[in-house]
Amino acid sequence: MAETLLAQILDAVRSHAPRGVVVFDLDSTLFDNRPRQARIFREFGAAYGVPELLAASAQHWRGWDLRVPLGKLGLDEARIADIYPTLRQFWWDRFFTSEYCRDDEPVPGAAEFVRQIAHAGAQVIYLTGRHEGMRAGTLDTLARHGFPVPPGNGAGVHLLMKPTLEESDDTFKADAHATVRVLGPVIAAFDNEPTHANDLQKSFPEAIVVHLDTDHSGRQVAVAHGIPSIPDFRRGAD
After folding, report:
1. Which class does domain 2-33+105-230 fall in?
2. How confident is the model over 105-120, as pLDDT tens digits?
């Protein structure tokens, strides 16, 4: 299914060139941020004498509850309860920064697909819940992994970020749809968060909205009917 869907989107982009727009979320859509999570755990383990955390790797994560990887790393419930408040603050101080987002790795096939989208004539819009304080690290990571980046790739690549960390992702993304709309017809949009994918479908009913079945906030929101899910951007992925 994924191969047919991605090919269909590329064909639609070519037919609308050079005005078509394709929207991509970043975290858990184009980028796997679990390496960032694991680095923070390892650093916490070294700083606070929790040796089990030195073995943290991306494979210990699924979702956003920090207690889950702690359990997978061998800590019992009592130790998790003891260190969790300190770990949570340590994580919070680092996760939403330019320095740490440089550890992110592309979701398989993502960089190649976004390049194909740009080469086919679409405007690429990265619409992310990351805040402006992460812009430098985000641009560095995009460029290092071969994604089209602004401004070096011309006016056809845009990075839309929250003004501040405190602003709601939901509100920012929904409001940003107006900015996206004036750039041209939205051909396709990709997001891992069901709430955001559903909002994209409402705002751009003519677009092909795709859900990335990676991880999400854990809110009990179903992906709306008609929105297909794919695990990554590899051609042939099911």
Report:
1. alpha beta
2. 999 999 999 999 999 9
